[in-house]
Amino acid sequence: MPVVLCHNRQHPARRQKERSVSQQTAIHLGLIGQGISRSSAPRLHRLSGKHLGLAVDYGLFDLAAPGDFTSCLQRCQQAGLTGVNITHPFKTLAFQQATWLAEDVAAIGAINTILFTDEGVLSGHNTDWSGFKAAYRARFGDAAAGRVAILGAGGVGRPIAAALQQLGATELHIFDRDRQAAERLAADLRSPNCPIIVCADAASASAAVDGLINATPIGMHNHPGCPLPVDCFGRPAWAFDAIYTPIDTPFLRHAKAAGAEILSGYELFLHQGIDAFRLFTGRQIGIMDLRELLSSP
């Protein structure tokens, strides 16, 4: 499929879709992924819509096999959904399906949000990238990220790596059990200002770093465990786990015990959700409003 890149302007088909969204009595959204039964995304978008006077419904499409993704995406488009979020393990596959990409997404190689336009265009965006930058700044201010280890080079590791290059990272150490995935990330995001080193194992990646990041599914409710041996946490200044179900993961507990300041995956969930909601609806919800809505019973 041809991919058209945005150069600081809004795609004309996107503008048409946003006009039709504003006229709908209901905005139909969804999440495509695996093991997503406990996702809080439906509640985030429904409550955000209600708060802003919009009728939003949000369904879960929990797929058994990667091969089901394309047909599910087609069904969502044919059913008239405004758009969908994409989560593990389909973010790089979704990138291949998009027919138009927002600026800066091409190098990332993964998307987590697709809008269906009236003209049939699949418009691809990455709010993990923008959401992580916002979450990092909200937690750590202008502090530079420094030397950072990222465990996982897939659909969430890639946008986080790209975001870190804009957050003052001086060097990225990447480990993935699929070494080719790590090497592709290093090649796609190579920068003279932030070298990317592919490491042989999690322990060597995490040695003598300022920041530690878990961008693997290890630690999720359906993938228990920790991606890094306890004795390999070192003394990081900060740590982040992309997982938010549960919020308090073994990875974050060990990092905190090692002296790190913690950024939880829940913060990424909130900020990427704000960005996705704005893409879907053209409306903005504030972070404090969203926190209050989600904390209510």
What oligomerization state is this entry in? single chain
**Number of helical elements:** 12
* Strand numbers in spatial order across the main sheet: 1-5-7-6-4-2-3
Radius of gyration: 19 Å
| N to C succession of SSEs | EHEHEHEHEHEEHEHEHEHEEHEHH
Q: Summarize model confidence as the mean pLDDT.
A: 92
Features:
6-stranded parallel beta sheet; disordered N terminus; 13 strands; 19% strand; single chain; alpha/beta; 12 helices; 297 residues
Gist?
By secondary structure, the protein is an alpha/beta fold. It has 12 helices and 13 strands. Helix 2 (41-51) packs across helix 11 (265-281), helix 6 packs across helix 7 (157-164) and helix 6 packs across helix 11 (265-281).
Written description of the protein model:
The protein has helices at 12-23, 41-51, 69-78, 91-97, 105-108, 127-140, 157-164, 179-188, 202-205, 250-257, 265-281, 287-295; strands at residues 4-5, 27-33, 56-62, 83-86, 100-101, 113-116, 122-125, 146-151, 169-175, 196-198, 211-214, 238-241, 261-263. It is of the alpha/beta class and 297 residues long. Strands 1-5-7-6-4-2-3 form a 7-stranded mixed beta sheet, with helices on both faces. The protein has a 6-stranded parallel beta sheet with strand order 10-9-8-11-12-13, sandwiched between helices. A hairpin with a 5-residue loop joins strand 6 (113-116) and strand 7 (122-125). The longest helix has 17 residues, at 265-281. It starts with a strand and ends with a helix. The model is unreliable at 1-20 (pLDDT under 50).
